[in-house]
């Protein structure tokens, strides 16, 4: 996470109160905007760069989201991986490693603010700090949240559609997802959010320890 948050860089108690109010307003606005997005389906292009801006990897895939907590994220290049959540259980499948990791869907919130796109739960949103610049929203995990990312930024186009996601991980690498063929609030096949575990794969069932 960032060594210095926006709050700690402010000077004076009154400035801190103003900043907290701005964060609260941004969170309310973003939550309202996302609550109108009952389903989201798109293709994406992915680019990963290091702290110096050097491109480390590119890829592509497709994404489908539905509230609450339903996700179908499939990366086709450079490696075939898939994340599927039915709202209760989430399955991460790495085809090359021949391994499936099973998690509780709610636990995804603890590792990435990305899942905020699929829930309005107050207890989950309270784990993150939201700020706004024009039509862009930056989400930063609070210090009490054990997240795998430093920040996540959502960018909306002139049609108010989610067009880009920028993710900075704990190593400082930036992953950019650009969306195309966007379809909002359409009917999605429920089978998208059901995952059948392939035969002869290693299963890491993390729900057993919950």
The averaged pLDDT comes out at: 81
Order of helices and strands: HHEEEEEEHHEEEEEE
Percent strand: 35-45%
**In terms of structural class, how would the helical and strand content be classed?**
alpha+beta
Strand sequence of the main sheet, in spatial order?
Answer: 7-8-9-10-11-1-2-3-4-5-6-12
Shape: globular
Distance between the termini: 26 Å
- The residue ranges in which pLDDT falls below 50 over 5 or more consecutive positions are 1-23
Q: What is the number of E strands? A: 12
**What's the main sheet like?**
12 strands, mixed
Helices, by number, come to: 4
Overall helicity: 10-25%
- The radius of gyration computed from the alpha-carbon positions, rounded to a whole number of angstroms, is 18 Å
């Amino acid at each position: 996470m960032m060594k210095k948050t926006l709050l700690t860089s402010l000077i004076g108690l009154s400035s801190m109160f103003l900043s907290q109010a701005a964060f609260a307003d941004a969170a309310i606005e973003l939550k309202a905007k996302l609550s109108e997005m009952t389903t989201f389906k798109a293709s994406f292009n992915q680019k990963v760069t290091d702290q110096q801006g050097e491109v480390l990897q590119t890829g592509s895939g497709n994404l489908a989201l539905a509230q609450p907590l339903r996700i179908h994220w499939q990366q086709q290049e450079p490696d075939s991986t898939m994340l599927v959540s039915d709202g209760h259980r989430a399955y991460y499948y790495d085809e090359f490693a021949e391994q499936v990791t099973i998690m509780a869907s709610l636990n995804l919130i603890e590792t990435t603010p990305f899942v905020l796109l699929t829930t309005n739960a107050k207890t989950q949103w309270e784990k993150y700090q939201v700020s706004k610049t024009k039509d862009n929203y930056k989400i930063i995990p609070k210090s009490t949240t054990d997240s795998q990312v430093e920040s996540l930024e959502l960018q909306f186009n002139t049609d108010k559609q989610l067009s880009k996601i920028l993710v900075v991980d704990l190593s400082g690498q930036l992953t950019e997802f650009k969306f195309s063929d966007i379809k909002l609030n359409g009917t999605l096949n429920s089978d998208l959010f059901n995952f059948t575990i392939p035969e002869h794969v290693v299963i890491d069932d993390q729900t057993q320890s919950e």
